[in-house]
Amino acid sequence: MILEISIIVIYTISLVIIFAYSLSQLNLLFNYLRAQRKKVDSPQFNFEDPNQIPFVTIQLPVYNELYVIKRLLDNISLLEYPKDKLEIQVLDDSTDESLITTKQHIEKLQETGLDIKHITRIDRSGFKAGALKEGLKDAKGEFIAIFDADFLPEPNWLHRTVPYFKDRNIGVVQTRWGHINRNYSLLTKVQAFALDAHFTLEQVGRNSKGHFINFNGTAGLWRKQCILDAGNWEGDTLTEDLDLSYRAQLKNWRFKYLEDVETPAELPVVISAARSQQFRWNKGGAENFQKMSKKVVTSKEISRKTKFHGILHLLNSTMFLNVLIVGLLSIPMLYIKNEYAHLKPYFYVMSFFVISSIIFFICYWFMYKNIYGGGLKQFIKYIGMFFTFFSIAMGFSLHNSIAVIEGHIGKRSEFVRTPKFNISTLKDSWKGNKYLKRKVSINVIFEGILMVYFGFGMYSAFIVGDQGGDFGLFPFHLMLFIGFGFVFFKSLTSKV
Predict the structure, then answer these.
(1) Residue 364 near residue 371, CB atoms below 8 Å
(2) pTM of this prediction?
(3) Following CA atoms 433, 434, 435, 437 in sequence, which dihedral angle do they give, to the nearest 10 degrees?
(4) How far apart are CA 73 and CA 420, in angstroms?
(5) How many angstroms separate the CA atoms of 286 and 316, rounded?
């Protein structure tokens, strides 16, 4: 019975954590809906007066971006801003032939009168954070705009973002990510769904109430003074953007999130690229929880509610670990439920936690409706997308849980960039990309095993107990089976 009690306790704790997280999402939904009805008038620079136009430095941290570097540079060169108040730093840590092609293209742009510099380093110490910090030493701008290699800001982007820095308390202006290849595949649709939830519900929900948000690593601007005051870029976590964001807000700098300014970007189209990105984001989140949580809790400058949302924000990636735990233990729990009749009251109470899924369903519907529109037809599409998203997200739970555990225990790992493909239409192909990994990870084998395990969970629904089976967890096990099956087979066929 000790084993059964241990399973019940661990299972219950994970369910309670997930429920608490769902309640925080519900609160963010209420904040989001109120923010939609409330128009905030922020002081802005008047760009009709040349004296109010500040100097801006654009930083482009790149590393082996052979397929997208020309597209990036050409796009950035089209930004509308006075040339005498703009400089561009290409922070190039590349180790392949793209280093030469980038240099050549920069020289062509320099001939047009554009102030663009090619900055290289001997080593990649600090990875992206190190490159940004190195460039900051010589940056002439009062404000620093940062774009990753796959982002394509509109020409008027600076005119729509820089003016908000008239408020001297604003340290960061962040824009919403768009997706140029949203409909390329099921994988890109699922990624877009998840990111849309973050860039609507979460960013607006937190920012509208003054809770901590994060600079998303790209498609935003920093006040240079804010970066320096917060301690500058540090490379001791894999999400240097989240780290500096929290250090800045703990120093009382305010962030401005602009939902209405969309910055298009390319989503990973191959599951190996999505896996490397997910690993970095989730491990970095756990690393930042270890680094920042105590500072958030002990701060005397922020409210209890902001602390609550801050801790759950830092624990965001750890939800994958809780989902994995609940999934793994749900099959033993199915047998325990039908073996020990005296535990029925406990299971009646536990059924309450299905409300977590209902809350997520409601929250994400408002996000989906905001982007695609309402109506019965869109709602039916949403139902299918929601269950597809949740299934595949759970299929990533083993991979992401390993990242989370490594982050919490302090295991160091290299910053692995996400391969870019220069793909925006269904006709474009990712095959032949030299940056893709060809070796299958051992984790993929375990994902295949988990697919079989949850297949057994569905079979168990028919045979447990003496009342003709128990199908309460069947939908959950079906989603896990589909999710792990998708990740497993996609990983094999895409040669992770």
Answers:
(1) no
(2) 0.93
(3) 90
(4) 15
(5) 8
Secondary structure of 56-84 in HEC code, one letter for each residue? EEEEEEECCCCCCHHHHHHHHCCCCCCHH
CATH 3.20.20.80 is right for the domain spanning 46-186+211-301: no
Catalytic residue among 93, 148, 196, 470: 93
To the query of whether residue 241 is one of the catalytic residues in this protein, the response is yes
Q: Which amino acid is at 203?
A: Q
437 — pLDDT class (breaks 50, 70, 90): low
Cβ count within 10 A of residue 10: 14
- The rounded Cα 170 to chain-centroid distance in angstroms is 23
Q: CATH 3.90.550.10 region(s) of the chain? A: 46-186+211-301
Residues in the chain: 496
Q: Is 115 a catalytic residue?
A: no
Full strand arrangement of the beta sheet holding 170-179: 116-120, 86-92, 56-62, 143-146, 220-223, 170-179, 254-265
Exactly one of 92, 150, 241, 470 is catalytic; name it. 241
Within a 10 A sphere around the Cβ of 307, how many other Cβ atoms?
17
CB atoms inside a 10 Å sphere around CB 374: 13
Which tens digit of pLDDT belongs to each residue from 390-408? 999 999 999 999 999 999 9
H or E element at residue 88: strand 86-92
Contact (CB, 8 A) for 317 and 285: yes
Q: What angle, 0 to 180 degrees and rounded to 10, lies between the N-to-C axes of helices 376-395 and 319-339?
A: 90
Please report which helix (H) or strand (E) contains residue 256, including its range. strand 254-265
Average pLDDT estimate for 196-219? 97
pLDDT (0 to 100) of residue 496: 40
pLDDT surpassing 80 at residue 1: no
Q: What is the pLDDT of residues 459-470, one digit of tens each?
A: 999 999 777 789
CA distances from 328 to 440, 451, 480 (A): 23, 11, 10
Cβ atoms within 10 Å, residue 368: 22
Q: What is the pLDDT of residue 259?
A: 96
Residue 244: which residues within 8 A CB-CB, separation 6 or more?
215, 227, 230, 231, 232, 233, 234
Query: What is the Cα–Cα distance from 225 to 347, expressed in whole angstroms?
Result: 55
**Residue 40, pLDDT score:** 77
Q: What is the band of 152 on the pLDDT scale with cuts at 50, 70, 90?
A: very high
d(CA 388, CA 164): 38
What is the spatial distance between Cα 145 and Cα 23, in angstroms, rounded to a whole number?
34
Neighbours of 339 (CB within 10 A): 11
**DSSP structure string for 309-372:** HHHHHHTGGGHHHHHHHHHHHHHHHHHHHHH-GGGHHHHHHHGGGGHHHHHHHHHHHHHHHHHH
